[in-house]
């Protein structure tokens, strides 16, 4: 009997050792596919495509095939014109119906992406633009103040969309960030950065942002869901004028009043002028610090920084392929050092053409001849190195790496040399 008593604990101990070894050797696939690899790109308004699929679906597939698990795109009444050229459907009268009834939008929402950054603009706020023309005043109704009828309609539309997405993607593991394009240009809708901000419009845009945050918060409060997340973000862009001149911009006026879940920074005002990596590194981190200094603390959010790099990039036409890639690495390294949760390059296919010559400006990772640029290969290699690191780390520690551990490893990847 003593022998039996000895053998049973021994068998149990050996089984436990074997199970522990299996955990370390067999890394759960979702630990790799769902990890936040920080860098990615976006797709809005591309000027060419190469397949029979829609522009939105084709570019989303390209982003996925490059290795990214993050898609940034736009849900907007312009879905059938400038943004993607999709077929117009008169039944689509709201953001929810756009998600439900537009086949390409529905398809990309159901693709195997973990993270989504989406510009959301309400149909309830939009007036049709003249054919072939773009006028942002048709989509923003807070110039000179925000009327209750528009505020209430926007609340209802975003509440409905958030409720739908929480139910539709319940238990999917997806994370959605719903936000806006460069908000300081909405504040200065005339695109003259030298003019002072209009006080009535400042009050109007603050109300607009608060309505967007409240609609998302209320829908989350009122809806049963699990393993899916939706957050609201504000995007800002004219930071340098606030730092250098003390001008009223969204960051130093509205941001602290709204206290959004997250802030996206479209960084051209500090990433394009610098001639050296050192200067860019200093300016970008100073700008990120400046934004963060106006962002109050907020409970109920994941750990980590709440300000990210939503746009950066340099056009091929003025930099060439090598310099475009080099300057992108400058931004990526500075962003990683600062621990920006996302760093998004503008963009997969170019969206700008010079009116005078018809030339592609070249904000691209794949050019108009379907050639993958160096910046594409940098991202592709970064993902491969990242996945190897996460897998190796998990095998050693039986858990995914922290952001800090990932950052420290990533800064030494060959892809960023």
Automatic annotation (TrEMBL):
Keywords: Signal. It comes from the Bacteria. Residues 1-20 form the signal peptide. This is Uncharacterized protein.
């Amino acid at each position: 009997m003593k022998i039996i008593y000895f053998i049973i604990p021994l068998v149990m101990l050996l089984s436990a050792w074997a199970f522990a070894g299996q955990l370390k050797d067999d890394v759960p696939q979702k630990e790799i596919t769902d990890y936040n690899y920080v860098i990615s790109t976006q797709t809005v308004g591309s000027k060419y495509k190469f397949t029979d699929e829609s522009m939105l679906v084709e570019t989303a597939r390209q982003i996925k095939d490059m290795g990214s698990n993050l898609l940034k795109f736009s849900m907007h009444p312009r879905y059938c014109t400038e943004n993607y050229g999709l077929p117009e459907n008169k039944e689509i009268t709201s953001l929810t119906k756009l998600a439900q009834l537009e086949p390409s939008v529905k398809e990309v929402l159901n693709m195997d992406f973990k993270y989504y950054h989406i510009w959301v603009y309400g149909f309830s706020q939009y007036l049709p633009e003249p054919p072939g023309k773009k006028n942002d005043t048709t989509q923003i109704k807070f110039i000179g103040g925000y009327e209750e009828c528009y505020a209430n309609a926007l609340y209802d539309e975003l509440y409905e969309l958030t409720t739908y997405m929480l139910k539709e993607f319940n238990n999917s593991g997806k994370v959605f960030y719903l936000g806006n394009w460069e908000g300081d240009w909405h504040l200065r809708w005339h695109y003259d950065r030298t003019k002072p901000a209009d006080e009535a419009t400042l009050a109007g845009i603050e109300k607009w942002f608060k309505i967007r945050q409240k609609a998302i918060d209320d829908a989350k409060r009122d809806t049963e869901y699990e393993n899916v997340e939706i957050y609201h973000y504000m995007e800002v862009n004219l930071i340098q004028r606030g730092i250098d001149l003390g001008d009223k911009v969204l960051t130093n006026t509205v941001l602290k009043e709204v206290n959004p879940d997250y802030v996206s920074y479209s960084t051209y005002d500090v990433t394009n002028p610098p001639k050296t990596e050192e200067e860019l590194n200093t300016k970008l981190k100073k700008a990120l610090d400046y934004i963060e200094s106006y962002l109050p603390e907020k409970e109920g959010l994941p750990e980590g920084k709440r300000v990210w790099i939503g746009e950066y990039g340099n056009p091929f036409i003025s930099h060439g392929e090598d310099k475009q890639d080099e300057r992108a690495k400058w931004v990526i390294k500075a962003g990683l050092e600062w621990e920006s949760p996302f760093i998004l390059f503008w963009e997969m296919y170019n969206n700008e053409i010079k009116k005078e010559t018809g030339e592609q400006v070249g904000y691209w990772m794949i050019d108009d001849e379907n050639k993958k640029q160096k910046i594409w290969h940098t991202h592709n290699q970064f993902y491969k190195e990242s996945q190897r690191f996460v897998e190796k780390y998990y095998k050693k520690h039986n858990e995914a790496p922290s952001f800090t551990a990932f950052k420290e490893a990533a800064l030494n990847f060959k892809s960023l040399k």
